[in-house]
Design a protein that fits this description.
The protein is α/β, with parallel strands linked by helices. The chain is built from 7 helices and 10 strands. The chain has a single domain, classed as 3-Layer(aba) Sandwich (Rossmann fold), CATH 3.40.50. The protein has a 6-stranded mixed beta sheet, with helices on both faces. A 4-stranded antiparallel beta sheet has the order 2-1-4-5, covered by helices on one side.
Amino acid sequence: MKAKRSSNHNVIETYDLTKVYSMGETEVHALQGVDVRVEMGEFIALMGPSGSGKSTLMHLLGCLDTPTAGTYVLEGQDVSALSNDERARMRNKHIGFVFQTFNLLSRISALENVALPLLYRREAEEALQRANIALSRVGLDERTTHRPAELSGGERQRVAIARALAINPALILADEPTGNLDSATGTTIMHLLRSLNEEGRTVVLVTHDAQVADYAHRKLQMCDGRMV
């Protein structure tokens, strides 16, 4: 598929992005013509009540799903109609994910969890080296051999952030990254995300917490599948 090149320094551009789910005879309009621009190096907080379309938008931005209509341009390439395999390659090359539930594999070490995305990219020789560097960046030099069950919630989230960093992504997508953490640990995680942003990484964060959203440069509010 031919890439659609952006004329500016936006990491994300969406045009009239629409997502409709069919539930039996009922159609659910999860997104209704969403236009978003996120510039390189921005820190964006995406907010809104349950059912507002935040999660659907994050799935589309993360190349985990395709829109029913509209256009999504990531790093200058139109990814709206890519195949599943093409979207997977885009995710693995350009996007670092941080989830509320950490999404770590329980049977392998922190180091191996962080290295996994690089192994999927067939970069085995560099994987462990880059994973070690990423874990050091989040302050877990001495926890590399520990499995997730041997780590605190905050440490598990830092492993998840290190995993996102290891691929050197253009974009970090964080979905309620403090949702399963106590307030003090959540503050530590937000300071880490902010420091990564200050280094030039683009961060888009979904949160219900106004204090968490205050770390962002810009807040986007959603309601009923639209940006308000």
